[in-house]
């Protein structure tokens, strides 16, 4: 079975730190988590407190609770929704998960369903999982 920690570390290399870019539709983001898309994420209250302190945003990475909330967000919103723990091949799980993070869970699943010439539902299913697990690498 695939390992979330491996997929998470791989994806985090590309997600960066804190950014607030008016040109970005996600506006304020931290490690790829958009405040627009995730306004109720518990990490925002921690980040808002750090904004009042010196050395912001560099001080965010040292907050253990905040880092755990980031990881939990990725696991709950992306990994679990693509059934990452049930996928046999790590590289298949990595790609499905990373695509879900960047394009959304439904789009990630639809792309794989399309590849297997299945009806595009955007939801994981036992049938899709079986097809993913039959892939030889």
Question: In short, what is this structure?
Answer:
The protein is mainly α and 137 residues long. It has helices spanning 4-12, 43-50, 64-79, 90-103, 105-115, 126-134, and strands spanning 18-20, 28-30, 33-34. A three-stranded antiparallel beta sheet has the order 1-2-3, with no helix packed on it.
Task: Explain what the structure shows.
The longest helix is centred in the middle third of the chain and has 16 residues, at 64-79. It is elongated and about 50 Å long. The two termini are 14 Å apart. Strands 1-2-3 form a three-stranded antiparallel beta sheet, with no helix packed on it. Helix 4 crosses helix 5. It contains six helices and three strands, in the order αβββααααα. Helices cover 49% and strands 6% of the residues. A hairpin with a 7-residue loop joins strand 1 and strand 2. The mean pLDDT is 94. The protein is mainly α and 137 residues long.
- The computed structural class is mainly alpha
Proportion in β-strands = 5-15%
Quick one: how many beta strands?
3
Mean pLDDT: 94
Low-confidence segments, given as residue ranges, are none
- Give the number of helices: 6
Q: Mind telling me the C-alpha Rg?
A: 17 Å
Helix content: 40-55%
> Can you tell me the overall shape?
elongated
SSE sequence, one letter per element: HEEEHHHHH
Head-to-tail CA distance between termini = 14 Å
Lateral arrangement of strands in the main beta sheet: 1-2-3
- Which quaternary structure do these chains form? single chain
Largest sheet: 3 strands, antiparallel
